[in-house]
């Protein structure tokens, strides 16, 4: 082997060694990144906005992979957990699904039925009544004759709320000044047959129907003597 051939072999070996060194450097960087980022896990991202109280389905989400250490502790990594769940607030497109975004879908107990009525926005719903809340339903009635006193009655006690809809204009195009009295919220209740009749009667014939939020864990019935109020009773 002459000197020129020896130089060629040496340069070839140097090139191979350089390539191996570069490859080793790349592997070292990759391993370092993996050690810092950690293993990847499955998460679920919303394809589009989901309105509050909407039942959730797998079609509303896309599966993505991301480092486990970047996920919050309450991130949903198993889509079977949305079965029988509804959105508790508006879920935005691109958001990662988390446990605190969803709640169990309310179900009817034996003998109950769903009844929905429109509640005037001026009666103080104010976002405090949500699915699962319990409320007492008050209604005010005019006296049947001029001499008869006006009355306020508790129509239903401890009514369970299944759903709270969006604020809806009762008269589209109403002025801003009268807006509070021309908007209502559809609210769905789980009620017995008798309470459903009471509620629909009040919606049809009462001057005003108002909801009073009952404190959690409070199921005390209101005595019959306290269910009807007249101004003349106060002395």
Q: Mind explaining what this structure looks like?
A:
The chain is an alpha+beta fold and 235 residues long. The protein has two helices and eleven strands, in the order H-E-E-E-E-E-E-E-E-E-H-E-E. The chain folds into two domains: 40-104, Type Iii Antifreeze Protein Isoform Hplc 12 (Alpha-Beta Complex); 113-233, no CATH class. The radius of gyration is 32 Å and the shape is rod-shaped. The termini are far apart. Residues 173-180 have low confidence and may be disordered.
What labels would you give this structure?
alpha+beta, 20% helix, 235 residues, seven-stranded antiparallel beta sheet, Type Iii Antifreeze Protein Isoform Hplc 12, two-stranded antiparallel sheet
Number of domains: 2
What does the average pLDDT come to?
Answer: 78
Radius of gyration: 32 Å
Count of alpha and pi helical runs: 2
What's the total number of strands?
A: 11
Q: In sequence order, what are the helices and strands, one letter per element? A: HEEEEEEEEEHEE
Q: Biggest β-sheet, characterized?
A: 7 strands, antiparallel
Terminal-residue CA separation: 125 Å
Enumerate the spans where pLDDT stays under 50 for 5 or more consecutive residues: 173-180
Q: State the secondary-structure class.
A: alpha+beta
